Amino acid sequence: MDFSQFLSDLLATLIGLAFGIPVAVGIYRWQEGRGRAESAKAEAERRDKLLRLTREELADCLKLMKDRYQMSHSHPTGQYIGHRLKTELWRALSDGGELRWIKDLDLMASLATAYHRLGETVFLEGMYVQLYPEHEKAIRENQLHVMWDLLGRSYEKAIDAAEKAIKAIDDALGGPKR
After folding, report:
1. What angle do CA 157, 161, 165 make, to 5 degrees?
2. pTM to 2 decimals?
């Protein structure tokens, strides 16, 4: 191999490197950017679905609580309240780590407050349901009345918190649910 052949091979290699490396890096960055964009889109879709499902659960509870709150004012001695409020979705999302998709800390605080108030209300409803069948006993009558009053106040707080959380979800999703 002579020196001119060596120089031409070296020059071809250097030209290949000068153009090949930037092209390869450019292709890699383009693919990486595309992958990040797809990942961000999938994350946003997951977050929106999670928020829609949470909103549905809160809206169902809100309707029941409003009905029960009205009942607590119209029936001062108590009333059978029916099935319990549903918070299973929130617990499943929380236990499963799915809440990581919610990056907005104000929204998360609003949801946590709403579900905390719901949890208090569910607890009080459970105590009330245990007392209700025994209301014919005079000693239980007073406990039932006190529990019914506590439930009415708990409904007020939970309704307020749920309404705020639903508004926060609507804002995060870009407006009220249609």
Report:
1. 170
2. 0.68
